[in-house]
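The methods section describes the discrete structure representation at length, but only in general terms. An entry of this sort, consisting of the sequence and the corresponding backbone structure tokens, reads as follows:
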Amino acid sequence: MARDGVAAVRAARSSNSKKRSPAHKAQDVQVMSTNSSSIVSKRSVEKLYYPREPHFFRFFVHKFMRRSPLINRGYHLRLHVIDVLVRRFLQGVGPDSSGKTKVVVNLGCGSDVLPWQCLSRYPEHCGRARFVDVDFPELIERKRQTVAATPELLAGLTGVRAQQQQRHPSVVFESDRYVQIGCDLRELATLQQALAAVLGDLAGCEFLFVAEVSITYMETAGADEVIRWASTLGDAEFVLLEQILPDGDGHPFATTMLQHFDKLNTPPKSVRAYPSVADQQHRFSSRGWSTAVRVWTLWQAWADDTFLSPADRAALDQVEPFDEWEELALFASHYCLVHAKVVSGGGSAAATEATPMPPPPSSASVPVQSVALQFDACAGQRGQRRFGTAMLLSSQDNSSSTSPVVLNVMGLGAKSRLQSCDVFGQAGHGDNNGALAAREFTLGEGGPASRMCHSLTDLGGGHGVLLAGGRAGPSSPFKDCWVFQQSASASGGAWKRTHDLPTPLHRHSVTALGATGMALLAGGRGEADALADCLLYRPQTGWVVCEILGHDRPATVYGAMLCALTGGETNPNARFSGVYAGGLRDGVVADQIFHWELDKPTIRYTIPRPAGALDEGCSRRLLARFGAACLPRASASSPGEFVVLGGVASAHLLDHQDEILVCRVTADEYEICSRLVGGQGMITTTTPPLPRPLLTGTSALLAPPDGRRAVVVGGGATCFSMGTFWNKGVYTIDLGAPLCSSGVVVDGVPEEDAPPRWAHEKTLDIIPGSGSEQRAAAQDTASSSASGGPSPTVTAIARVTLETPDDFARVLRDGRPVVLTGLDLGACVSTWSLDYLANKIGHDRKVVVHEATTQAMDFAAKNFRYATAGFGEFARRVAHGERLYLRALSHDRPAEKPAALADDFPALAPDFALPPQLSAVADSLFSSVLRVSGPVNMWLHYDVMANVYCQIAGSKRLMLFPPGDVEHLSFPPGASSSSIDVFASLQSSSDSSTTTTTTALSQTHPHEAVLSPGDVLYLPPLWLHTATTVVSSSGGGETSIAVNIFFRDLDGGAYAPGRDVYGNRDLAAYEKGRQDIARVVASFQRLPPAARQFYLLRLADELRRKAQ
């Protein structure tokens, strides 16, 4: 370009820049900042999902951060669909092609590494291809600097030009196959000039424009102009990925997404102009893309063989366990993928060879039934849990004097799985009996451990409520089963262990068989595969496999709908029938609807034909769901009616009119009879009225006395990286007739029919274990042990004095715990007290503490709560003997950064010093933690890193067990904590007439240390330990103050990658080993149970021998 032309371009860019207001310029900066978060997620995907490929994002992301499985899976899908379309474009280069140069232009590229990925993955197709990255000049300049300074990025590039040799002022980097252009996409004339400068005759090129969530941040007119302009350059394709609003901006996911981007000041500006797949189709076809336009939602693309085969989807589960299917469906349904093509001369080549996904099913021919929908808000964060399961308890004599109580049991809370249940009470107009019943409701001791995705089934007839299975992590299902028996007074109840499932399961489907006490289970996900069998539960004999008769058999799925609709109410010999539909198979919702008939213990499935106005394809795709609730319609006018609530459907987002369906099924046919929506009869206790619920992860049940209403509690979803949406109250849905148009009404509902209000009354902890039965068994075992069982010997931990660092090196090599004496820890030993700490730290400084209800804290049972308090208040309460414990966290970034005494409590740091003998600790230091404890016991656990525990004030008693004792101390798979109360076991032994301990410790090798101020305990990695504050002989409260320093004693590669704030994440080899075990177990699933058990036990014995 001539020098005066360069000057003209620069002048034009300066003039355009001046036209931008300060607010618009600030927003441009915010848009550029979205790149930072995106590439961190893409780096996470690159490292986990593409381990055998060269990694390029690592040069733009300085610190690896492992994202959650949901974000990893979503970003993998984003990257993969674009990669497939780019690969197909590049593969057009060959003897049968047009001979034009293939040019991939990444619009708003940020730090994407698409050119290097293509050059690495498809070198045979890139010989005559060129890659052009385009973004804001400021951002592209940073990318240029990174490329120029990184030999690995320059290695594959030839013909790199010096900056002063660039052929256009907007071109900041140029090589034979890769170019960077710094240009605002609103300046298309400048962009076209720059392309012409580096490519020559544009008519000799075939373009693929990629815009991955980039032009959506432009004003809609500007983004549309980019699309139109790209279609004028001759032969071209366009790949667009951006947000849509398939059910409007009122959908809970859409609301959360838009609020997130608004908060970042980066609103997607085209999303309301083009909210649907059809709108995006028209957007492109009306702007020059006349040859072909195909549009998918990402949820459709996930299920389309164009992008992923069933084997491809299954392989992803080997990368990391995944079970966030509802949330993936919500995210992927709110993003669209457009592939458009225009061929000069009016050619008719297709954009892809694949058949486009069918349009979302239209339910317009199904009548809409307006019903009463009541919402009762819960205060604050009460009642917020997902993937729990609810049960409804009422007086066993059906008296009206005691109102029903709803328990929403366990599930997932804001941060972790919950070991509790929410208690909801009911009160009508002026009636407080329900609230009183809920407030007085109590649980007996003992019960299942925390879990989610389990089932609760009311067996009827006084048989109790059956809890079956569930999971901890996605690859850690449970097989234990429990029955909840309500007390005679209906004021409480207790759990009792019953027959285990034959195999661990979660996301299985269970339905009661009348009030016979029996239940039917179908599907469910095990440790590796889904269950292909049906199981029948009888209270006396447990679970048996049902024989399936006939040729029609459902696909092996989990998360399906199962409901018994006809059969004898109390006759155990009666036949039962019902519906089984949907579920997940190979990562997509199975298109299946079955009628079943059970003649115990055989079951026969039939495939009914569709009836009604909908064609078969539409009706099946509306009814077949994953994670939906299925309830019999008690007010049904004909047998076989049921109601479907929520869940996710195959390849499309359920809109608000399709979420709740009334259906019927017989052996011959099924029909979607109506769609239920809240109408003029909405009742609400909030202003403004009725927040829209998100019907995923909810618990739904029928309310007494007639079962005409459904009660929905809990639910919500993690909305990808954009926040979490929670349902904030209880919804009551009228499943009966349409709203009356006459008569006395209360808030739009006939007065006599107005449902009582629901209120969250309290949350009750469920203490895991078998309660009194477990204690009796333990006492029996203890008695047996006293009459001749083995008794462990408690070994005193050696106390040694260190003179030099070499002395400590010998301690490290020996690998056994020792108490180090005579070390100089600084002035802290003589000065630190609660008052001193409060004055130095500040009385108002907020700290997060453990607030315990009993002396023995239990991490698994969560019998404590995290509370925030000023340090002065915390110190005062500890001094008065309250059960409090402080494990200090990083002050500024507690969720991201390990604790560091010098940074977190700078006023205390000068008082404490690591002695020179412990220089090895300082050289490999990971964290330094302040610990302040009242009269509580730290739970039994292990640390992956070595550490030294420096006792500063007070005294501490610690019990340690060597790593080999882990198999005797009830550590669940994958957990680093146990619920065994070591001190209680030892105390019960000392109080007895023998010297033996209970069986829990009988095969262990306990070591004991009592630390005084100035003592330092060296704790080798993986030694299991628990600690308690030593109480004075007078019974007064004692306080322990300590500094706990963790350090790495292994090579860095031994530790698992990713965030590890506590320094307690298991080693990488163990995490991989658990995944390998899951795969090994899966390989035996198709064998008969006896053979499977035989060979797995043999393998377990081999592992045990190698461990020895």
Q: What stands out?
A: The chain has a mean pLDDT of 86. The radius of gyration is 33 Å. Residues 396 and 485 are 11 Å apart (CA to CA).
